Amino acid sequence: MRYAEGLKMYSANFSDKEIILPQIYNYLGFRGVGRSEETDMLIDNALRELETLSQFNYIYKYFTALPEFLKKEPYLSYLNGAKGVIVCATTLGAGVDRAVNRYMRTDMSKGVVLDASASAYLELCSDKYEKTLGEDLSYRFCPGYGGSGVEDLPELFKLIDPGKIGISLNKSNFMLPSKSMAGIIAVGKGKKEEKSCKGCFMANSCEYLKEGKRCYTLCSKTGSEKI
Amino acid sequence: MLYAMLENRLGKDLIIFDGGFGSELEKRGLTGIPEDLNITAAEEIKNIHRSYSCADIITANTFGLNPVKYHGAYSLRELAKAAVNNARAAGKPVFFDVGPTGAMMKPIGELSFDDAYEAFKEVATVSRDLCDGYILETFSDIYEIKAAILAFKENTSLPIFATVTFDSTGRTLTGSTPEIAANTLSGLGVDALGINCSLGPKELIPIAERILKCTSVPVIVQPNRGLPVLEDGKTVYKLTEDEFIESAEKLIEMGVSVIGGCCGTNPEIIRRLSGYSGQKVREHEYCPATAVNSANCVCIIDGVKICGERLNPTGKKALKEALISEDMEYLIDEALKQQDAGADLLDVNCGLPQIDEKALMPKIILSLQEYCDLPLQIDSSDSEAIAAAARIYNGIPLINSVNGDPEVMERIFPIAKKYGAVVLGLAMDKNGVPKTAEGRLEIAERIISTAGKFGIAKEKIMIDTLVVTASAEQELVKETVRALEAVRKLGVKTALGVSNVSFGLPNRPLLNRTFLAMAMERGLNMPILNPLDSEMSGTARAYELLAGIDKNAENYIEIYKDYVPSASRTVKAVKEEKTAESLYDCVRLGLKTRAPEMTERELESLKPMEIVNKILIKALDDVGKLYGEGKLFLPQLISSAEAAKAAFAVITERLPKDAEPKGRVVLATVKGDVHDIGKNIVKVVIESYGWQVTDLGKDVPVEKVVEAVKELNPFAVGLSALMTTTVPSMEETVKALRDEGLSAKIFVGGAVLNEETAEKIGADYYTKDALEMAKKLDEVYGTESAS
Lengths: 227, 787
Description:
The complex is a heterodimer of chains A (227) and B (787).
Chain A: H1 17-27, H2 37-53, E1 57-63, H3 75-79, E2 84-91, H4 94-106, H5 108-131, E3 137-141, H6 153-160, E4 168-169, E5 175-176, E6 180-187, H7 207-210
Antiparallel strand pairs in A: 1-2, 2-6, 3-6, 4-5
Helix pairs in contact in A: 1-5, 2-5, 4-5
Chain B: H1 2-9, E1 15-16, H2 22-27, H3 37-40, H4 42-51, E2 58-59, H5 76-88, E3 94-98, H6 113-127, E4 133-139, H7 142-155, E5 160-164, H8 178-187, E6 192-196, H9 201-213, E7 219-222, E8 228-231, E9 234-237, H10 241-254, E10 258-259, H11 267-274, E11 291-293, E12 298-300, E13 307-308, H12 317-324, H13 328-340, E14 345-349, H14 357-371, E15 376-379, H15 383-392, E16 398-403, H16 406-419, E17 422-426, H17 437-453, E18 461-464, H18 477-488, E19 493-497, H19 508-521, E20 526-529, H20 534-546, H21 554-560, H22 571-579, H23 583-589, H24 595-603, H25 608-628, H26 634-654, E21 664-669, H27 677-688, E22 692-695, H28 702-712, E23 716-720, H29 727-739, E24 745-749, H30 755-760, E25 765-766, H31 770-786
Parallel strand pairs in B: 1-10, 2-3, 3-4, 4-5, 5-6, 6-7, 7-10, 13-14, 13-20, 14-15, 15-16, 16-17, 17-18, 18-19, 19-20, 21-22, 21-23, 23-24, 24-25
Antiparallel strand pairs in B: 8-9, 11-12
């Protein structure tokens, strides 16, 4: 009913494809040797499909007083020096899950590519949308990485009610639809920071890290940067 | 008392609802669970309600009050009493506010239709003696709101207003359009339906326009005060009161019957809106249509719409077997094939003597609607099966069928009315099919008028004028098409099971499509046929072009733009033929459609096991090597696996009966984990290596895994978990398997697993991906066999 905060729909421009391609290849198990024309074509189709299939929605709330669940590490380190924090959640909607499930039956290659493309697409849409929220914003930090746990999601959900944009949380703290993210953004730190792999909860099993890669690509850059 | 007020005013005079509550709470600095505030800050809550007393109807502060969402300190009943009591302070009729549960419905989420129903039933039970009506709002899933509407209709007699939320794409968050929402909610018989939240009044105008066009039910709109913006760390609604009122006036002019406000609207806005209270509701354009819909697809029966007949077991041996063994995979594949072939809706029939239709039909509906977007036609002579299926169906179904027999109509029409279904009426009765068109017309008239007595409008009725077999009753074929024309004049749409006409004659396809053309020209709207027969569906598409229904031939050109007049018609097939010259190539290039044929060719010169050892394993190894080197990617690996799997299927048939198969693997994504893409990839890859796989699916309870392993005695069990939070569930599963002393090797995998965790939770093997698991399985199997 009466709690929508900053709800907005955004469609990533298709010309952004080159930005997210490396990311999609990462998700598909790409290990840094050349691109394949065949996969490029599958990704191309998946991105086209996502343009109509996805319903990007973003909900957030700005806090100057630190919410209770953030009063611990690693959040405190991440928020160090911040004037406030945006708590946010975003999703591509249930239609993408439906399509992926369907393709997993009828054409598994398509399903896998759509799934990977959707993950990258959601990050792209979110990164772009977050740029409209203000100047001095840090990168999005989601419970689950950097030594934090998805166990914090229920508290986060209480603060911003992502149900408003159709995201629900199950008992194992999975977000549904699966192409959803929830996290925080430090505001007013006065310095630009980037995501890092140090202390990520996947750090000791991460296939990317073992090979000196990482699982995410920042919107502003492409290729493999230092970790 | 209120109902009388509604009856006199609803849809005639404009009714004003109150405005935003959350923003008013915030203004007063009230935080915490909003529903608890009904007790902990009763006076403040009363004051908010009082500030809205200019409205005609007040909404209680109960949005999140349902057993799935609310886990606070009070009982639902205590809060319901307090909330309604607070709302009464405004001195106006009080509607109980009902929001969604917050849990996502199956199949994407975990909340079943029945559980959602039970949750809302509890809300109905704790509130029905307190309030004057219900406002169901901010629902983004028409399946959930259907469960809610049924719960309130079946457990109270109070009026129900139901509103849905759309985002700026004009869809609900689960992908339903305004037309789908309007058709579903009208069908379910709510007192008013409409839109609330997420957008401002201006943005809701085009959505309201679409809803008004497809319903005669009074429409309610409760917009937000535009989109909020962040200013100095505070959420601000920038839309001015004047701007809100200006757009609201437009909505009123368009024919909206009830208007109020959602997020960000305040008492001042509602005070100004209340100036319009009692104004005459404007008439609006409404086009009654015969429409059925799923959650994501609406089919308006007009022009020619193809109803796929392949899920009807009559004369289909494989389907019969699938129905008896409840092989839903087979049914889903059949449904998707028909959808891809261009069907507009699908017939579903499971009428076999050994089948309990009442139990099976709802199961089939649930399985099909998980994957297939098309609306469904529930086809049964068992009224209990129809009722169970219509209840669980996500949308507005077509019911097949009633006939002129009053007893049948009395059984079926109440079900159709309750669930808003369209009903197909057969132009026959106890005495059989009348010989003449006039006789069938008379029955059609009887069906339509009886439906009217049950409150079912004419557009909810379709008539099947019944096809006779040309070989037996040649003279009567023309009566069927004459009857079509006559029935169409009654203002209803028509249907025919076309292919019955050719029974017992040679070259049936020719007769079928000729008869189809005859019938369409005389007014047939819904041929029930096999959409995979491209000549039949092509005849329908060609007719639509020639009859001027397919404007500018757009649909026809879209379908036939790549048409090649030869047996191997699709571009893809031609391309594959060029590139794949051997089975090795087929697997290496991942051409699964060509693989069976190539396997047959290899079988002419090689023994089955030679093909496996010399070709398939080599091809898979090469593919695996390229994948490992990063020269080939997951999609190609999967295609290759699928091609090898198709080849294996052919080879298995040729293997001597006593040949020892490699063995079975049971796969499951553990309890609590709903991501199964990784597990699905594992399935196809290890199948391509010749393993038989039993896939238990996702979110699989511990007991189910144990049960399956006991029953099937597989060589190995593969468990998958994606998140740290479901590793304990994997551990429990491993432990349960060990406790039972089962000998199957336990493989684990998934994003959060590694060697160390695998060892810690007691698994035998950790493999990092599908390919590694296939290799490890072969290795362990080799060692075991050798010893």
